[in-house]
Design goal:
It comes from Zingiber officinale (Ginger). With 750 residues, this protein is an alpha+beta fold. Bound molecules: adenosine monophosphate.
């Protein structure tokens, strides 16, 4: 006996849902008739309505007839996908109106599913799932506290450590937020919540800036995958998301299908991928509805690159032959397929480019139907806004949603606000959120404070208890998902093939979130659609070995069967290290403004400077360069304690050479702009030495980027480290080896 389960994704309302079901039944009827003719036996088992989605499973007895049935079922289901903006907004309104209720429910689900995890058992939660017991027994933690547990998981310990079910994969943070890459339990729920967040913000965005049918020029990249000691795959969370079928489906639904083929996104050489993203974006320039990258840095980096390669791209388009710089075979093959000689397009691009003044407005000029530029533009991305505005000309910039490798937090539902004012409405059903109230401490307390924390903390409050105008550190408790067999393993007997479906789309969604599973799914897809002959034993064994490797499946399959997905939790009361301000409420859920990372980056004595303080100082000093039309391309900092007293070092890469006098004034301005009382006081009494400005060669920050990408960061996820510690010796070495001149501040001399 074998099974097929097909689930049709969210129907806007019950009525159309019913129509869907009726249609499916009709289709299945036809399929059944056909299959019966070919001696198959079809038996409908059940139709279940689940969360506005409709499950239908039926079984049939004849080997191989499944392929026919699958095609009959899946093809119409694809066509039935209708993304209903109003229903997404309605759903968001409903959920946020009862945010408190959803928070309790979310926590209950998380704790119910993970009661057996060693971590929770040891804390004596004893099956309780209410917020009060949870907060009383489970401590607030940082990544450092969880590291020993995550280490055990990545070393291959498959016992229930952090979650009820074993973790099958590991996510890798970009490593550029805090200087080192963090291992996090892989979170398949991230794919789900990413789609929820994307759809929500898209729905609101589209209400104000409707886009037509088309594609998106997306500068997105898969990152390198590494194996942990225990054989688990570790890669960045965005790579996992981009690999998922569900991502592609959602992008399709929201007219955001990437102009580049997958081979470009997952190409092994990010520079070649970037070139091809630009090329493909231009091939489909009339269809492009918006321009996107995860972070603004990547958008700016892309157009800086365009300034260098545009003529070569024009030649490629004119001649229909891909530049010899593209050497990765998979990228070459995929892009060559869509590249045909188009002299008129090449001429038009050429004319437009030469007509631009210093590349101002290049985006709307080359992509005339683009409605906006989209990506994270807040926090550490703010320094790139000026350049991005330059490229975007009159096109609106829209800041994308707020999340991290650990999980998503909120969606931008006020898209018309400029990036500097962007807010994020927390989705109360994607995790359980707490907020640690933070209050700045006074000068006296600051001087006596031995810790690096320059905030007074109060007890964490719940999502609905936060107050407008106040600042908080975000604490998350979130989901991860694991695969489970809803019916046990018995029904595996006598199956040919395993088909994986989940609760959001008709075909193979969640499973695609890891490399192995996506390979498997691609393989399966091939098998179902492309391979005309039946599966032999060797193929079957191959599939099974893949499955056993990538998920916790332990049985042999002898036909198509149904898998379900179960959620499991991975992080409990995890301090994200981000500071946010509450700007208001959307119904009962808070709207957050991202303020900055909490950690201090520059501190020698009693001085305490954050990433934001550094950014403000750099902004102030960079104004002195503006008259010469010179820009700070990128910057970072370092605390140099090799001299006595220690001093701050700021590294700048400039768009062109400036003169010593101006740079010396910039150096003084940087020094004076660190307004933190601890710094000013220490400088005055020479407890901290004069600030040093070091100018690095053009391209130095590209080398830093290259280094991080080599470690596994994705280009689109890259954030320049804003402080390079002594222990980050490789990056420090790159910077120091490229210094062309340095200046010491005289600002406090008199
Ligand atoms: P990663 O280490 O790559 O997972 O990066 C996650 C971090 O990026 C978050 O903890 C934030 O500090 C930052 N981040 C993510 N989204 C935003 C946003 N919309 N605005 C500002 N910062 C963000």
């Amino acid at each position: 006996m074998s099974f097929v389960t097909v689930q049709f994704s969210s129907s806007p309302d019950l009525q159309s849902g019913c129509q869907v079901v009726v249609t499916i039944v009709a289709i299945c009827g036809l399929a059944a008739a056909a299959a019966t003719r070919s001696q198959g036996i079809i038996r409908f088992e059940r139709i279940v309505s689940l969360n506005r989605s409709y499950w239908m499973s039926h079984s049939f007895g004849r080997k191989r007839s499944w392929r026919f049935l699958l095609e009959a079922l899946l093809a119409p289901s694809e066509k039935m996908r209708v993304f209903n903006i109003e229903s997404v907004i309605d759903e968001f309104e409903t959920v946020t109106k009862s945010a408190g209720h959803h928070q309790r429910e979310t926590l209950r689900k998380i704790l119910e599913q993970n009661g057996k995890a060693e971590y929770l058992k040891n804390l004596g939660l004893g099956g309780r799932t209410d917020p009060e017991s949870y907060k009383a027994r489970v401590p607030l933690v940082t990544h450092g506290d969880l590291e020993p547990y995550i280490q055990r998981i990545s070393d291959g310990d498959s016992s229930p450590i952090l979650t009820g079910k074993p973790i099958t994969s590991i996510s890798l943070s970009s490593g550029t937020t805090q200087g080192k890459q963090k291992y996090l339990p892989f979170n398949e729920e991230l794919v789900q919540s990413t789609m929820q967040i994307f759809q929500t913000s898209y729905a609101f965005r589209n209400r104000e800036y409707p886009i037509g049918d088309g594609k998106a020029l997306q500068f997105i990249y898969g990152s390198k995958q590494v194996k942990t000691n225990g054989g688990l795959t570790a890669t960045t969370a965005t790579t996992n998301v981009y690999r998922s079928e569900q991502f592609k489906r959602t992008m399709n639904d929201i007219q955001s299908q990437c102009t580049s083929p997958d081979e470009v996104i997952f190409g092994s050489d990010y520079q070649q991928s970037l070139y091809c993203h630009l090329l493909c974006g231009l091939i489909y320039s009339d269809e492009v509805q918006f321009i996107f990258s995860t972070f603004a840095h990547s958008l700016v980096h892309s157009f800086r690159t365009f300034e260098q390669v545009w003529e070569e791209i024009c030649t490629d388009i004119r001649e229909g032959v891909l530049s010899s710089r593209i050497t990765v075979p998979s990228i070459r093959e995929a892009v060559s397929k869509i590249l045909v000689p188009n002299p008129s397009l090449a001429d038009s691009i050429y004319q437009k480019c030469v007509g631009l003044s210093n590349w101002y407005g290049v985006i709307p000029e080359l992509w005339p139907n683009a409605k906006y530029v989209y990506g994270v533009m807040t926090g550490s991305m703010e320094p790139y806004l000026k350049k991005l505005r330059h490229y975007a000309g009159n096109l609106p910039l829209m800041s994308a949603d707020y999340g991290s490798s650990e999980g998503w937090i909120g969606a931008n539902v006020n898209p018309s606000l400029p990036p500097e004012l962007a807010t994020f409405a927390v989705l109360p059903n994607i995790g359980y959120f707490e907020f640690i109230p933070l209050e700045k401490i006074g000068m006296q307390e600051l001087e006596s404070s031995l810790t690096s924390i320059h905030y007074k903390e109060a007890e964490p409050v719940d999502l609905t208890e936060v107050e407008v105008g106040k600042e908080y550190e975000v604490v998350i408790t979130n989901f991860a998902v694991t695969l489970t067999f809803p019916h046990g393993c018995d029904f595996l007997d006598g199956c040919d093939l395993l088909l994986v479906v989940n609760s959001h789309s008709p075909f193979t969604n969640n499973l695609t979130a890891t490399r192995e599973t996506s390979e498997f799914v691609a393989f399966l897809y091939l098998l179902v659609y492309k391979v005309p002959h039946c599966i032999n034993d060797a193929t079957l064994m191959f599939i099974i070995s893949k499955l056993m490797f990538c998920v916790t499946i332990v049985a042999c399959t002898k036909s198509i069967l149904v898998l379900g997905l179960h959620q499991k939790h991975s992080l409990y009361r995890y301090r994200l290290g981000d500071i946010v301000r509450v700007t208001g409420f959307h119904n009962c859920t808070p709207e957050l403004q991202f303020i900055r990372r909490r950690s201090l980056i520059l501190s020698i004595n009693i001085d305490k400077n954050t990433e934001k303080d550094l950014q403000l100082s750099v902004e102030a000093a960079a104004k002195l360069l503006a008259e010469e039309k010179i820009e700070v391309v990128d910057f970072t900092s370092h605390v140099d304690t090799s001299t006595e007293p220690g001093h701050y070092v700021i590294f700048w890469e400039l768009s062109s050479v400036s003169n010593d006098e101006i740079l010396h004034s910039c150096c003084n301005c940087l020094d004076l702009s660190f307004a933190d009382a601890g710094y000013v006081g220490s400088r005055k009494v020479s407890a901290i030495g004069p600030l040093e400005l070091r100018i690095v060669r053009k391209g130095t920050f590209d080398m830093v980027l290259h280094y991080y990408v080599g470690l596994g960061a994705a280009l689109s996820q890259f954030k320049a480290p804003r402080c390079v510690s002594q222990s980050n010796s490789k990056v420090l070495q790159i910077l120091c080896m490229n210094v062309t001149s340095c200046y010491f501040s005289t600002a406090y001399e008199n």
